[in-house]
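Supplementary Text 2. Reproducibility record for the structural model of the 554-residue chain.

All settings were left at their defaults, and a single model was retained for analysis rather than an ensemble. We include the record here because the model underlies the residue-level annotations in Supplementary Table 4.
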Amino acid sequence: MRRIIAPVFMLLLSFSVYADSIKDDLNAANKAYFLLDYKTAFDLNKKLAENGNAEAQYNLALHYVYGHGVTQDDTEAVKWYRKAADQGYAKAQFKLGVIYEKGHGVTQDYTAAINWFRKAAEQGLDVAQFSLGIMYDNGRGTPKNDKEAATWYRKAAEQGLANAQSNLGGMYYEGQGVPLDYKKAVTWYRKAAEQGFAEAQYNLGVIYEKGHGVTQDYSAAIHWYRKAAEQGFAKAQFNLGIMYDSARGTPKNDKEAATWYRKAAEQGVADAQFNLGLMYANARGVPLDYKEAATWYRKAAEMGVVSAQYNLGIMYETAQGVPKDDQEATKWFRKAAEQGNTNAQFNLGVGYYEGRGVPLDHKIAMTWYRKAAEQGSAEAQYNLGVEYYEGQDVPQDYQEAIKWYRKAAGQGFAIAQYNLGVMHEYGVGVTKEDKTAVTWYSKAAKQGFANAQYRLGAMYAHGNGVTRDDKNAVMWYRKAADQGVAEAQYHLGTMYAEGRGVPQDYVLAHMWWSLAASGGEEKAILNRIIVSKKMTAKQIEEADRLTREWKPKK
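Retained model, structure tokens:
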């Protein structure tokens, strides 16, 4: 019995000594590597690896990956990772998974990647669990499976892996693979955020900004956005700019907003590029600089930001920051219009109608006007109304004209309100109805539309649709006359000459008729001659002075 036991004891003792020797060699290799003595580390690891030590095989693969102590060689790296992985070394299994996922040194193979990730994940390696979750999350090498993704994210998250905690928070936030639960989302985002994981800090900022699962708190949102932004997380930089721009959780500060927009814009965040363009175009937080505005608009426009495409079109149309170029303007209007931008559709219609940047084509203009009009563009609705009223490019149709004028008028578009007033006053396409005419004239007149003010004055002067009221007639004639409407100047002169609604005053009558005459009202010439005969030379001189000094009011 003793002869049997003694050799076994000696064998165990020898193995222990051998294991200690391997450990010492591994430690020596690791120390050399840490001290950047890559050649010594390589030689030690190679010897151990060739003797079958899995950890050394893994380490040797790293030498080949990075070219430390040996010529960089992906094929050799894969060989040694595989040797370690085949022995069950979890880190090597994970690395093989990454290699197959990326196609480094091997043909890209998501199925093989999943196989190696799973082997490592089942041994509890957190990064492998996370990577396996990613594969299920994105449906790579396997059908997309949110529930499996959440399961593996949770395993890694519970080990404290920050990016897994962040992704698990995202699953709860979106209700993917787990029931939607903002509070649990906050819990996992916070765990990752407190480890300094920028994406989680950003997401936590979003949650506080929106008040999902927490009391809405703009100050807390700024706190987390700033942490992520200071790590260079572009979305957080953009959102932090928005907070300063819109005075949420902090006093409005255009300079700070521009600073953070720039940081995000320089990382390629298209909306930040557009916003930075706006800052330059409006001298907010930065000096006014149309050239810079156009530069940033272009960057955003080329990434498909529709408002940037439209604004860049405007820059080319108005020669702000770029040379005037109708063809370039049309190009960018078209890009925005095709994405459904109403203003761009309208401007493209105008381009075709006037032949600017494109061949003149009223039919195509009508197509774009209609698209814009159907999306609620008052200008386009008005233009369609004009087209149907005049019947030049479409069959004349007063009912269609009224329909589109009414849509524009309902949005407060003054000239459409005025045109509706005219149609009701004269019974064009509708029953003549002075009261309705007065309603529409009033709406336009109160917005300062001069022709509507003139017609409203006339309605009061004649008692059409309203009780006759000379004072109101004078008030509205004056508003239109002050804007240079010759007909209103003529009638205001008449009111002064006759003393209707104002004290009789030949000097002012003479002045208004002189202005009307210079505006093309021939009747005013005769009236001025007649009233001059009732005036002294001094009064005529005063009237002439007032005429010379008169300036239109807008």
